Amino acid sequence: MARSTANRAGFRPAAFPQMARTLLAIYPQSTRRYDEMLGPGGEVRPHWKVFFEHLDRASPEKMHERLAFVDRRIQENGVTYNVYADAKGADRPWELDPLPLIIPPDEWAEVSAAVAQRAALMNAMLADLYGDQHLLAEGLLPPALVYGQHGYLWPCRGLRPPGGIWLHHYAVDLARSPDGCWWAIADRTQAPSGAGYALENRLVVSRVFPEMFNDLRVQHLAEFFHDQQDGLAALAPVDPGEQPHIVLLTPGPYNETYFEHAYLARYLGYPLVEGQDLTVRGDTVYLKTLQGLKRVHVILRRQDDDYCDPLELRGDSALGVPGLLNTARAGRVVIANALGSGLLTSGALMGFLPAICERLLGAPLAMPSVATWWCGEKPARDYVREHFAELVIKPAYPTQRMDPVFGNELEGEAREEMLRRIEARPHAYVAQEMVNLSQGPTWSRAHERRLLARPVGLRAYAAVNAEGGYSVMPGGLARVASGGNARIISMQRGGSSKDTWVLTDGPVSEFTLLKPSLGVRDLVRSGANLTSRVVENLYWLGRYSERFDDSARMLRVLVGRLVDGGGQRTPAVRSALALAEHVGVLPSPEEDGEIGEGSEHSLLEAIYDPEQPGSLARAIRSVMWSATHVRERLSLDHWHSLNRLQREQQAALKRHPSMTEASAFLDRVLGVSSSLTGFAMDNMTRDDGWRFLVVGRRIERLSFLAAALSGFLRMESARGAGSLEWLLELTDSIITYRSRYSRSPELLAVIDLLVFDGNNPHGIVFQAAVLGRYLERMRREFGDAENGELAAALEALLAWDLGRLDSLHFSESRICAASLELAGLLERLDEAANHISDWLGMRFFTHVGDVSRQTMAL
Amino acid sequence: MERTPVRYHVLHETTYDYGSPVSLSQQQLHLSPRILAWQQIEEERVDIVPAPTWRRDGFDAFGNPVAWIAFHAPHESLSIRSAMTVAVIPHAPDDLAASLPWETLRDRLAYAATPPLPEDLDAARFLFESPHVRVKRELADYACDCFPPGTPVLVGARTLMAKIFREFEFDPEATTVSTPVMEVLEKKRGVCQDFAHLMIACLRAQGLAARYVSGYLLTHPPPGKPRLVGADASHAWVSVYSPGFGEGWVDFDPTNDLLPDTQHITVAFGRDFADVSPLRGIILGGGGHEPEVAVTVTPLAAGSPGFPAEGEAAGAAAA
Q: Contact A143/B279, CB-based, under 8 Å?
């Protein structure tokens, strides 16, 4: 065997050795950067050897399959958490490269200890700066970097959080210099992002290379997250008998790392909430749920601290929870991280850390920070002037908007201007040495089989554990610059990310937070703890999607008749216009205008212009708005069709469509609408949330039908020829009518079908009866329900003698007492429906639609 | 110098008529006056209608009394009536030229990697940008002719105060509470808050410490004296750090171009208006709700009872 290999070596006929040579042959080595995979002599480093050889043996087909797997998983996760379901398509701040960054055990032991120390240091600094301020009194830190920062939240001064922990989770960006040493380049103390992406990367990449993952003894991440859960639970200020209730606070679906919030919330088992879901009563903060207010003990926040309490912090913040700071003062809630922790994100602090570490922890700082000069000090300013070309200028205050300025890119006047800006506000600037990041291999998607060398950095994570110390995630989010020559990796967007494999000599913990298989105990049948906001949005989704259907039908009646009749104002057109005004689909006529005039222009506005109250475009926008907030319950297909409709409407708004085009558009709207309805009725899980959606639909339809029919009965013009035909079309009942009577519509039969027939799903009695049944169910579940008024109105309607309309020749008659009476009964139902809606708002939604407002008096 | 205290009764009434019910409301009050070396509080109380569901009292990070109140039941109006009897001792300095040269003070306040003097560290809280105060080159430029080399800091501050008084016009229509200080500098118009913010910004741009003071001004001037602008609402002025001089801080009123003495009643101080706004709240519900504010300052004879009978004080409502 050995002999035969040696013999063949000269020819290299076998596929493997040839390919191996190719992979390394094209991989560019660098003298300026440390290479993660290759040693100084170009040899593969020992801890990379097994993985590299595995990679090298893989066929192009196999690698292609792996990449496809990665893409599919990422896409599926995006759909599961419904963040990519917007018009822009899949959008992820950090792409995933399948090759991990590998770190050997001994090296990680040092990094990990240094990260834990740094987290403890940051916590001690927050304790000092929001407490006794020894650091300032002893001159270890300039007041400019504390008092001068908007991130120093004065209302938090003197506030001591439970357990003396300000910093519950922390991240630090690390880079490796050409000599192989790790440096800290940025601290994240506000609401560090990326841990969820690191977790997702792990769950994907460990399945791309399952044998490697096991053989190399890669440390698992689950224990870290478990420590974090325990740490938060241990700090929770529970009253006797209470279980810690921990929530994850997100700024909402428009935030660029919303995916991560949803992903982590589900992984950690915490409800994902927005500011509006929480409410403060006295000293306590509560989650608003369908079942009532539920106390919250810990808020893991992903929202910046100054947005968290509009009462005392930023008053213009609609995202916050008014009064939250007072609950923290009372020690009744843990806010993780504590409000005010963003202060330490400033790069200007780095130069002061060694002395501060000695002072606060009594130990030297284990990991150096990138060389940093804060311009607020005269000697530093002089240094910056002399070494300008070797430095990067950055803002000293993280809240300051400024991109890093590379000294070597500025010359002449531009350079002088920058120096003048520094001179005018020296304390606002910091200069940092340019770091030559290390490089690591990434898999090229553009080539069949090639490794690229790309600059990499590592974001490491630490979290407070139940003992009050810091656990460090064995791994982290490795970040890869998009180009080969990047000077810095922006941690914002662009570039890609990697899983980080920390190897261990000891046993690998098999602990997992993911359940291997679900047991009976894990089965979830209904949405327990549905937040009021989700329920309200479902309710409005129901109402708006019905409204959008009603508006489209009303407009199609009009447009269809105008197109067919060449724009003529037949009696039927005039009566339909009048009804459209009555129900608000068309604007009410001006005071001196004639009812039912309805120009073509105003019709098109009613279809396409979202600024027009009652317009179809506005109804589409409302549907989109409420759907956005419950999008995890909608299918991707519906998203696409809703988005298409909105795009079509927006495009049409700019180029004055014809009536024929408008007619085709209305057909499409009704197509989408009926598929949405079918989805809601047939595919959505029938939990409490769904019932609110259906109640919304029924209330809206009842209200529309009652208003339309009573308006019709009261209108003189409705006696014109053809009016009953369009009324049947408007209520989607024409087919039923024809199949029953096979003759032209007559008033008695039409009213019977549209009002009294309890089997017509587009009839009044049907709506009222179904709505009544749902309210009855709510009464059983929640103890109360407001359906007395509805029941009475329905009873009165059913008691009315339909015979009074018998033998009435509608087209010939004037408005008679009987039709006015019936109209009155219908209006009573409309009113009852609206009262139910108000009651639902008060009882279940607790003013969610209401935005808090700031008031101020001098 | 005459050291007889001057006594006042102050009534500060705020009324919100919300138009429609407010279901949930939380308010932060900076209405109770702080005790100072030259200001004694004889009596003080805040009456609130309706009665709050919840209340917490304390002191803010600058040592001002603060109260937080919450209403959990629907209500259509809110009335907050703050009444106090205070005695103010004359304290305006007479020799501004005896203060430190401004550059000496500026350098003392700059960071030098050594432990700062406690009073300097205390003053450093009022040295930097804050929500309503920018520190920019344009501001330093505006003030630089008031601070020729070697000028005693308080002389420079008085010159700056006079310059602002001369060049800016009092105009309640020109600005709102959220008008940025740079816009005030450009428009040359505003009210007492704007002038205080502007003067503070100019001083901080020179590297000097200045704080924002909120309080009241005597409503009825003594016979023969001119009526002071801004008297019918809560008032705002500036305090400048000048160590070793009086209490270490000296007040300036750029709206009236004078050094506050016994006509100004201090409620609170902070970095700017945002730290000490008298009444700030968040409500759910309600319709239009411009508050009605009335401030009445009544001088009291020595020895007369602190709280005059209802309706005795003739108040003027602020615009």
A: no
